[in-house]
Amino acid sequence: MSASATPLLKTQGLTRKYGGLVAVSNLDIEIRPGEILGLIGPNGAGKSTTFNLISGFVRPTSGRLYMDGEDVTGQSPTRISRKGLVRTFQHGSLMRTMTVRDNILVGAVGALRGAARGEREARVQEAAAMLGLEAYLDEVAGNLPHGLQRLVSIAIAFAVRPRVLCLDEPLTGLNQTEANATLDVLRRIRGQFGCAILLVEHNMKAVMQLCERIVVLHHGQMLAAGTPQEIRQNESVVSAYLGTRHEH
Amino acid sequence: MDKRVLSQSGLAVVVAGIATLAVAPGYSANLVMWMAIAVLMAASLRFVLLIGELNFATAAFVGLGAYGAGVSTTILQWPFAVALLLSGVVAAAIGFVFGFVTLKTKGPYFLLIGFAFTEMVRLVYTKVQWLGGNSGMVGIFPPQYLEASYITFVVVLVGVLLIALYAIEQSHLGKCFVAIRDNDQVVQSVGVNVHLTKVACLCIGAFAAGIAGGLSAFVNNVISPGDFGFLLSTFALAYLKVGGEDSPLGPVAGAILLVLLGSVALGLGAGEHVFYGLAIILSVLLLPQGVVGLLSRLRPGRRSQAHVA
Amino acid sequence: MQTALQLVMTGLQIGSVYMLFSLGLTLIFGVMKIVNFAHGQFFTLSAMLVAVLVPWLTTRGVSLPVAFGLGALAGIAVSIVVGLLLYQFGFRYFQRDLVGSFILSIGFALLFEGVFLHYFGGAVRAVPPIIDGDVSFFGVNLTAQRLALGLVALAFTLALYWVLSATRLGKAMRAVSIDHEAAMLQGIPYKKIVFNSFAIATFLGAVAGAIMAPISVITPTVGADYLVKGFIAVVIGGLGSVPGAIVGSLFIGFLESVGGYFFDPSSANMAIFVLAMLILLLRPKGVMGNG
């Protein structure tokens, strides 16, 4: 996908400090329409904080956030979501006590606030179909195996039809088969709906397979950015990973 | 809402309404009306529990409804229908402001602030002379044309409101409430305005509580500040806990049971406090899902639902 | 100036009672994550026992200070036993269940209040002041009794502070209140800590009751009256925060002192509630709270 004039999301000098601790400093990241971007880095690199910053769940200490060229710095998660950025959470990104159908319905409600019941219910069917969850719609989400729960989280976000789908470690706890299936789903989502996908992941193999561009964070700063090929050969990235405890 | 459930509950309300015609006027009728009002109060509390918050200000909204009805009837001389409607509207309006301010807090903070609010409103009543101050208001009577059938009116109205509350609970809005209780971050992340949704829930609950207050003003004919302190909220809590908070029938079972047993116990000279205290303790320790929960577990072949302990 | 000083002293003295109360409340919340509405009943129980035992003992020739000492000991001991029974058979099963534990505590509160009303009756009891006379400094008049109360409250607050910061028990309590799972993983004897915390909190409430018995009017609902404001103090300061409880209590003490002087007690109460709501609006977790 070619980079269009205005990126979907752009950060400028984004910084977040917690007292004396600098979680993220001076980040300049871009997400282009329709691209699949990976965000990687050793533990403590600031990936979660970055996620929270771009989705509005945390306010930056300094720096700015733009969506479609519009300054959205400091806006609430609700407003950023309505502008087209939906994110999942690393742990428990779903409503355990509700059925899968109702889970996805929440996403549909978020997207189709004024619409008729029928429209929302249709959206739920569509999201379930895309994620292969039709058979489980009436199951209580908390009773499902971990892999399916992850798919439910993605379905909820997908039901909003975001322009940027931000997934926080969607593959954690999945075995190889499940992970591959999820990657296929993500490709399909991007292919059919043209949304951009931002992925935070530790599963290096999956990242290299799926992402078109990768941004590497280390100690809260951007270490490198480029294609998987470029990142794989980048020496500072390699040493950053070898120098710290490696997860996978 | 499920068509079948709607027609079944509608039928139940009609049956209940007809049953009230058989009740002797006087104490029995009053008892039935108190039960109905207690049901509505407990239902209001349960409704706000959908967003996961224990609304201790329920008593305040009941009081606001009662005083709203009292003022409309005795001071402004407005017709009954208006007074009753106003009792709900006043409570909902103040509920909106209260909720908007306080639902930024959660859990124990919201609970205790609701508590403080109830006490504060009660103090306001005692200080405002045209509300009757400490002595309250008197002479709140239902209109002539309803005097004989007031009991039927109360029971049917409460039934209708319960159905309405259930309909909202089953609607997409209601699912949002429950989702917020389960995981409000996810709800926020899909673009739902969690804060306003919570406030909406509180408003609806406050409306129901206000109507309960208005109805009770016309039943008791006199109201005073002391009726609407935090003790009333604890009664509502007892009804809900004993009946079971998971099912919309819980408030019905709990309120009827406790009001009935309470009147018997009071007749035996036992203290009101001891009675309700024991009822709460026993049901919390022994019947965590309330009477309705117990009954549904005893029914064979019922599909179990995931229950958040 | 004179008045200002008087108001400050009164505020401190009122605040010190609330402090003993709210320290217990915040401690229980911090360690068990529950809101214990029955906490006021330990106050009442202890105060009631003092109010009953002291006259009984003095009519049998025991001197007043000794009678008071025995009465206080009895009140505190009984309260702690009752408290631990409530813990063992009730609250222990509802840790971190806010709604459940709160409802249970309301049940207990109602039950005790009913029992007190029944056995002690609605009649008001008074205990004669233990320490007679007035004390005057900086031109401010205080009854010696109230001064003693303030000092005792201060002493216990400092003692609690010391326990929390310097002793192993205290550090364990803090660890549990921050992250109970991590604390358990570190080998902290969780059950013992919680048990002790509940005992300490009950102790503080009972002490407050025993001290207040000679000063204020003891009715069966006296504990509940203090409880409401004790809770407001804790909420203002931040549930689970000891410095917060102290700040909140003093704040309420001053409001009550000033409000009671310029207006009347119930207006002061209203002001307290309104201010509490305002504070929570700006800081939803209390001034020093962290959840």
SSE diagram, text form:
The complex is a heterotrimer of chains A (248), B (309) and C (291).
Chain A: E1 9-18, E2 21-27, E3 30-31, E4 36-40, H1 47-55, E5 62-67, E6 70-71, H2 77-82, E7 85-87, H3 100-111, H4 117-131, H5 146-159, E8 164-168, H6 176-193, E9 196-200, H7 204-210, E10 213-218, E11 221-226, H8 228-233, H9 235-243
Parallel strand pairs in A: 4-9, 4-10, 7-8, 8-9
Antiparallel strand pairs in A: 1-2, 1-3, 1-5, 5-6, 10-11
Helix pairs in contact in A: 3-4, 3-5, 4-5
Chain B: H1 3-20, H2 27-49, H3 58-75, H4 80-102, H5 107-127, H6 150-170, H7 172-189, H8 194-220, H9 230-243, H10 250-267, H11 272-286, H12 290-298
Helix pairs in contact in B: 1-6, 2-6, 2-8, 2-9, 2-10, 3-4, 3-5, 3-8, 4-8, 6-7, 6-8, 7-8, 9-10, 9-11, 9-12, 10-11
Chain C: H1 2-32, H2 39-58, H3 64-89, H4 98-120, E1 134-137, E2 140-143, H5 144-166, H6 168-178, H7 180-185, H8 190-212, H9 222-237, H10 242-262, H11 265-282
Antiparallel strand pairs in C: 1-2
Helix pairs in contact in C: 1-5, 1-6, 1-8, 1-9, 1-10, 2-3, 2-4, 2-8, 2-9, 3-8, 5-6, 5-8, 6-8, 9-10, 9-11, 10-11
Which key terms come to mind for this protein?
heterotrimer, A: 248 residues, alpha/beta, Rossmann fold, 5-stranded antiparallel beta sheet, 11 strands, 39% helix, C: 291 residues, mainly alpha, ABC transporter involved in vitamin B12 uptake, BtuC, two-stranded antiparallel sheet, 2 strands, globular
Detailed description of the structure:
The complex is a heterotrimer of chains A (248), B (309) and C (291). Chain A has 248 residues and is α/β, with parallel strands linked by helices. Chain A folds into 2 domains: 1-84 and 177-248, Rossmann fold (3-Layer(aba) Sandwich), CATH 3.40.50.300; 94-161, no CATH class. In chain A, 39% of the residues lie in helices and 23% in strands. In chain A, helix 3 packs across helix 4 (117-131). Chain B has one domain (3-229). In chain B, helix 3 (58-75) runs parallel beside helix 5 (107-127) and helix 7 (172-189) runs antiparallel to helix 8 (194-220). The longest helix of chain B is centred in the C-terminal third of the chain and has 27 residues, at 194-220. Helices cover 75% and strands 3% of the residues of chain C. Chain C contains 11 helices and 2 strands; from the N terminus they run H-H-H-H-E-E-H-H-H-H-H-H-H. Chain C has a two-stranded antiparallel sheet. In chain C, a hairpin with a 2-residue loop joins strand 1 (134-137) and strand 2. At the B-C interface, helix 5, helix 9 and helix 11 of B face helix 4, helix 9 and helix 11 of C.
